[in-house]
Write a structure and sequence with these properties.
CATH class: Alpha Beta
Shape: globular
CATH superfamily: Hotdog Thioesterase
CATH architecture: Roll
CATH topology: Thiol Ester Dehydrase, Chain A
Helix content: 25-40%
Radius of gyration: 15 Å
Number of helices: 4
Strand content: 25-35%
Distance between the termini: 17 Å
Number of strands: 6
Oligomer: single chain
Length: 155
């Protein structure tokens, strides 16, 4: 089992992923607030890059936040187990409750489910799927709920 990375190291990994591999993540600039075995929380500030014509957070920015929040645990547990994941999102369902008029916090608290998924993919050697829920909140109120279907295979 590999040594666990610090929050600062995970923040750098997210930044590098945005700079090098997925430029849209780099453009939106999400900030990792916390990550542990159960929960991952990140935020995206409302600013010119993330705002739509109604001065609320653009759908694409919200989708990036949900994508990163749901996917962080796959990297987290793969790193912990010392394996290399190949994962994608097969589907996404979004329910919008109200407009996001300030910084949005994306919370995924299904770390146990993702860990089981990564372990199952490692054991079987086949691609495994599960649904992960991400809650988006702004000013203490829910603005959206995302149900992301994550698909993991261990290389």
């Amino acid at each position: 089992m590999a040594k666990r990375k610090t929050l600062s190291q995970w923040r750098w990994m997210l930044r590098i992923m945005g700079w090098w591999y997925i430029p849209l993540i780099g453009y939106v600039r999400p900030k990792l607030e916390s990550i542990d075995d159960q929960k991952a929380v990140l935020s995206i500030r409302l600013r010119r890059r993330t705002r739509n014509h109604l001065k609320s957070m653009y759908f694409g920015s919200l989708a990036v936040g949900a994508d990163v929040a749901a996917g962080l645990h796959a990297f987290y547990f793969s790193d912990e187990l010392g394996v290399k994941p190949s994962f994608v999102f097969k589907s996404m369902q979004a329910t919008f409750h109200k407009r996001a008029m300030s910084t949005v916090f994306f919370t995924s608290d299904e770390g146990d489910k993702v860990k089981e998924l990564v372990l199952l993919a490692q054991q079987t050697g086949e691609r495994q799927n599960a649904f992960v829920t991400v809650e988006a909140t702004s000013d203490g109120e829910s603005v959206a709920t995302f149900v992301m279907e994550i698909s993991v295979k261990i290389k």
